Amino acid sequence: MWRVLWSLRISHKVKIFIWKGLKEAIPVKELIWRRMSKEDPICSGCGEELETLENLLLKCKKAKEIWKAAPVQWDGIQKLTENFNSWWAAFFEAIQRDQGLDHISLTTYILWQIWKSMNEKEFNNKTHDPTQVINKAWNAWMEFNDGIKKARSCSIEKTTAPFQMEEQEDSQIPDNRTVGM
C-alpha cells in the first residue's frame, strides 16, 4: 500500500495528506476532541455525526453530494466507509483496471479538495457547490499531469538535442568524395 501511494503521480502535498489520513494524523474534530477535549466533535457539514476522517471525506451528506458529482465512482467499496484504511486498501484494487492509476490519482485530488472545502466552511464560513469542488480537483490533477508531461518533454529534448545537433553538423560537413579529391 505504501509503495503504491508514494509512487502515484500526484503532488507531494496530496500524498502527505493521504499518508496523514492513513496514520490518523489529520486534525478532524473528533480526533482533537478525543486527544485534547477541545471543540465540538460534531461534523459541521452534516451536523449529525462525529467529524471523523471517514465522515468528513466519505459519509457526510456534503461529501456524498460531492462524490455524486465526481467523474469516478467507487460503488463497490461503499460498505468500507467506516474505516479509511480499509476503504483505501480496497480502493487500490482498481490499479488492475483500465485507467486505474488515473482514477486513483484523480480520487486523491477529490479527497484533498473535500478537505479544503470543509475547512473553508469551518474557518471562513464559505461553502462550495459540489461541482466547484470537483472542478478544483480535476483542474489540480490536470495541472499536475501537464507539469509532468512538460518536465518529461524538456528532459527528452535535453537528452536528444545533442544528437540532433550532431546530425545537423554532419550534414553541413562537405563530403570529400563529391568534391573530387
Automatic annotation (TrEMBL):
Pfam families linked: zf-RVT
Reverse transcriptase zinc-binding domain ranges (all copies): 2-67
Protein name as catalogued: Reverse transcriptase zinc-binding domain-containing protein
Species for this entry: Coffea arabica
